[in-house]
Amino acid sequence: MSDHCISTVGIVGAGVMGRGIAQLALSSGMAAVLVDSRSTALQSARDEIDGRFRRLVEKGTLSADEAVAQMDRLSLRDELSALSETDLIIEAIVEDLDEKTRLLSEIESRVAADTLLASNTSSFLISEIAADARYPDRFFGLHFFNPAPLMRLVEVVAGQATSPDVLARARAFVLALGHTPVMTADVNGFIANQLGRGYVLEAARLAEQNVASFKVIDRTLRAGMEFPMGPFELMDLTGLDVTYPASRAIWEGNGFDERLLPPSLLERRFKSGLFGKKNGKGFRTDERICGGNDHDDLTSAPLVWAPAAFRDAAKPVLEMMSSIGVTISDDTHPPENSVLLLSLEGERLLTVAQRLELEPTRCIGFDPLFPGKGEVSLIRSSLTDQRLVNRLDCRSICFSDDGAGTICQRIALQLGLIAGDMVARGVATADDIDRTAMLALGHATGPLKRITHLGAGRMESLRARIFEATAEARFRPSRWLTEAALSGT
Predict the structure, then answer these.
(1) Could you give the residue ranges of the DSSP H alpha helices within 289-370?
(2) Which of 292, 287, 249 is nearest to 390 (CA)?
(3) Which of 120, 122, 377, 478 is catalytic?
(4) Which residues have CB under 8 Å from 377's CB, separation 6+?
(5) How far apart are CA 144 and CA 16, in angstroms?
């Protein structure tokens, strides 16, 4: 393989991703050859790219001369023969395996043996596309995220036959674009889509088990873990017609791992055509089914008391409750008729109340690991007096039902367990997984960094309690988490 720098990039497919990658290459000083058999798609791509550059000129972030120079480096062609002089060719066509395989064969017959070839696929294995390639050692994955110019992370996928030299050049290319490369093995879902299952699938499990409504789960995760969108908002936006089939493919392609198994709730809604915003039938398109009060005031809020052993952990929650008019008791013993606030780490509220010999009808729980910001997420049991809940439920406080592990704890664990499994299997490094979570999925922190911050030993104890209580295989032990806990990470 030649070690020359990549100066001319060929992109096949003038759709959303193709034109985004072309714009990115042009902005980085490279020439781009955009190929598509549809003349209308090519003209639309040219107009869109030119319009984007014009808007940058209007904002003052790009000079008019630079915009002209960048457009001059764009070549629009309708024949694959135009790719003969390119250094790297990126396939960005429809997600159809037969079409991608056929295209790779046609491209290989028209370009030099040392031309680098990549696919932007998010659905198929790179080795699967290259199964019949003449030179599979020069073929790899470059998974950009939409919109490519703005989403700063690119997954660089190593096929079974991809040479180390090619991967090094691929990584250098992504860096030359001003983006962040993460290296991943050739597994279904790569890093981002596999990791994303820990968010949406566990949230669906929580709803399926009636722990909370779609709306309350979304609220709790935005406030407690700073996700930009709740999982049901996200699935409504993406479309369940996309999320469910992708989830099944990732589950099947990774050995039917229970951590990646889509719950039946998603299957039922998918088969019922409840796809989300695209057809107006989603989790959050009818808020009447979501529950949760939205009024601001607390009418005659009850006195709240926390046991001394929990007060330090409860401090953020107590401060937020105090700020909206709840009176907090500092008494040594619980005042008569007060609400008892208990800390929950993988245990059920009723279990903790029984251990402390407290009246369960007066007990509510809080999550000491994820107290939240600006909103209080509390837990009630089947025995909690509903009148107490009604007096506290408002825009700034929401309730979920008692279970082994809170909403945030279960989501954090599943993200960490899936990420840890990827590290243990050699799919990617811990740092690259954390980078992917933040740069591609918009998470406030990486799943493994979060576990380290909270304490691997503490999170392993949390996992063990949930697994013991539920016997659900997705909470089975994790080699990565066990080793991290034993090492004191």
Answers:
(1) 311-323, 349-355
(2) 292
(3) 122
(4) 219, 220, 223, 224, 366, 367, 370, 397, 398, 399, 400, 406, 407, 408
(5) 11
- Domains located in the chain, CATH noted: 8-185 (3.40.50.720), 192-288 (1.10.1040.50), 304-394 (no CATH), 420-486 (1.10.1040.10)
pLDDT, tens digit, for every residue of 319-334? Answer: 999 988 899 998 999 9
pLDDT tens digits for 399-410? 999 999 999 999
DSSP letter at 394 equals B
User: Could you report the per-residue pLDDT of 139-167, keeping only the tens digit for each?
Assistant: 999 999 999 999 999 999 999 999 999 99
Shortest CA distance to 204 belongs to which of 393, 414, 441, 438? 414
**Which listed residue (127, 193, 338, 343) is catalytic?**
193
How many Å apart are CA 416 and CA 465, to the nearest integer?
16
Nearest to 126, CA basis, from 114, 111, 115, 138: 138
- Is residue 202 flagged as an active site residue? no
Placement of tokens 């002089």 in the chain: 85
Active-site residue flag, 143? yes
* β strands within 210-362, DSSP E: 304-305, 328-329, 339-343
| Catalytic residue of the set 108, 155, 202, 347 | 155
**Alpha helix (H) ranges present in 254-299?**
264-271
Interatomic CA distance for residues 131 and 124, integer angstroms:
12
Q: What is the pLDDT of residues 266-295, one digit of tens each?
A: 999 999 999 999 999 999 876 544 444 555
Predicted local confidence at residue 300, as pLDDT: 76
The answer, as to whether pTM is greater than 0.85, is: yes
79 is catalytic: no
Active-site residue identified among 91, 127, 143, 179: 143
Whether residue 453 lies in the annotated active site? no
Peptide bond into 335 cis (omega under 30): no
- What the block records as the tokens of 308 is 């001394």
Q: Which residues of 84-117 are buried (b: 16+ CB within 10 A; e: fewer)?
A: eebbbbbbbbeeeeeebbebbeebbeebeeebbb
Angle (nearest 5°) at CA 109 between 103 and 113: 110
